[in-house]
Amino acid sequence: MKLTPSDIYTHRRPSECELRVYLKANGASSGKPSPYAEVLERLGQRHEQSHLKTFTAFEDLSGIGSYDEVFERTKVCVANHTPVIYQALLKCNLRIAGVDCEISGRPDFLIKDEIGYRIRDSKISRRITQKDHPEIILQLQTYGWLFERVFGVPASRLEVHNGPGAIVEVPFDGPDPVINALREIVQIRLMTEEPFSPVGLSKCGACGYRDICWEKAEVNRSVALVAGVDQGLAITLHEMDILTMDQLLEKFNEESLGELKRQKRASLVRVGSSAYSILRNARALASGEERLLSKPDIPVAKNYVMFDLEGLPPQLDELQKVYLWGMQVFGETPGAYISSTAGFGIDGDRQGWEEFLTKASEIFDSYGDIPFVHWATYEATLIKVYLDRFGDETGRAARVQENLLNLLQMTENSIVLPLPGCSGFSKKAMRRTRLFIERQLRPLASSARTRYRIVTLWGLRAQG
User: Fold this and answer.
1) Confidence (pLDDT) at 117
2) pLDDT band at 435 (very low <50, low <70, confident <90, very high)
3) Residue of 230, 316, 210 lying closest to 277 (CA atoms)
4) Which pTM does this prediction carry?
5) Total domain count for the chain?
6) Which is deepest, 139, 162, 340, 410, by most CB within 10 Å?
């Protein structure tokens, strides 16, 4: 069996999933990479090449076609104390879980220093930690373990050239973490039946097998589709042989579900007060019928800014970079669409941020403290990220923060939609919200002003 660090990535990224490893090993067809994933790949390649150019001399092994030839050439370069080796190949054979395995890996850089060779990989990720990227840590540790197996001496240091350009040291904790990670992969590949793995937004969002798992979950009416049922609760319910939303409603009431304990990080935690909303969401999803909880609490204003950001999805990486800041005023005095975009080069990100703040300030000058209507928490989160990144001594960003109006939160407080819990950010959810508003909330509105605000906030934003 052939194993590489990419198998560790498959298992651990975007989040740990045994089913992803099983599907890949059994020839399931993964979907085409999303445009965002392709952008990240190009950014990664550009980041790696820019770091390569910082070395005055290096041996480039990336263009050698033969697998065995690259390995032999790597050994020759190390023996000759070549200062920098680009795209070396390390490999060894080992019996793991009763299976003969060939483990190989290609670190971006082997760099000669006073002690021996450093192993370095370029990654566009900002945070190289066990919490944020265990797969990167294990990848570098696998390279370190392979290096010692091949050359009989440890690498002098394991490093990551991260997104901001810093060199981050990765500790080598011995062979056990690597062997254990590889053993898990071997054992999953040897399974004769699919392992259970519940669907989830961050878990499945960037996975190539998302459509396969999602379609199966919808056909089977999986309990994991219910809003509020997290991974730990879905696994606990599976162990109790409660697999569907219908079984959840049949077996539990609010009190019994609230007392149920599920794994959350390293502890067992009661479901508690969230049991009410989970069962409420399950009833809507199981019946296919919407439920009105209350009229939406919409703040009165003559005009509203529809506010939307476009950036790399957070489940793909933690770059948290916005490339488009979009705004448009609707209401009694509507305005034209306004946007700012991130520029090219090292200051491009700051340029987009500063331009957004200037244009937002111009809107405030014209309309006063106008609500900035957005969907979910993305816009609020990214404004805080950019404040931490670049700051704003003028107070313009703080004024935007004070006037943010979370449309999703207002919707969830007013309506229960028969949609999977992971659809909160989808166009399907917004279209369903708009249709529901038009059909049920508008007749309930007490005045033309209220009806107008409802159409503005839900209708125009959902269509956009």
Assistant:
1) 98
2) low
3) 230
4) 0.81
5) 3
6) 139
